[in-house]
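Technical annex, item 7. During the second reporting period the consortium partners agreed on a shared format for inverse folding records so that results from different sites could be compared directly. Each record opens with the tokenized structure and is followed by the designed sequence. A conforming record, contributed by the partner at site C, is shown below for reference.
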């Protein structure tokens, strides 16, 4: 299983430079070729950034219909643990939470363009590594 970081979805949804490879990767997850998880925290962050009801609706429907994607809802205890890791890992809260969930679930890699994860003990991969 893989953990998909927020920036992978945003790269596609905002039509950024690597949108095509993110789309191909997310289609593989959606079709069940790859198993992945995303945090509810990421979903909320994306909704806030999009701030457009039509885009949010399309995004949420795609998530709901994705065969290979699970959404992990963090608990208060998860968020406390992540906040305690921030100083040790030298990561911001968002990255600490993603890292904590990845460790808790035993994922193989975090799929992200964020190189901050390179200094952790979990492998960081990019969508291009899977397509």
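Designed sequence (site C submission):
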């Amino acid at each position: 299983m893989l953990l998909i970081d927020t920036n992978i979805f945003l790269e596609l949804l905002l039509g950024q430079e690597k949108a095509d490879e993110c789309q191909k990767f997310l289609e593989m997850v959606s079709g069940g070729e790859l198993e992945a998880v995303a945090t509810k925290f990421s979903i909320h962050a994306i909704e806030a950034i999009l701030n457009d009801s039509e885009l949010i609706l399309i995004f949420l429907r795609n998530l709901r219909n994705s065969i290979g994607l699970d959404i992990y809802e963090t608990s208060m205890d998860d968020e406390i643990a992540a906040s305690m890791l921030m100083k040790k890992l030298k990561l911001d809260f968002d990255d600490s939470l993603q890292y904590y969930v990845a460790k808790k679930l035993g994922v193989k890699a975090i799929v992200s363009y964020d190189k901050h994860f390179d200094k952790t003990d979990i492998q960081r991969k990019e969508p291009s590594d899977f397509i």
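The chain has six helices and five strands. The two ends are 16 Å apart (CA to CA). All partners now use this format for quarterly exchanges.
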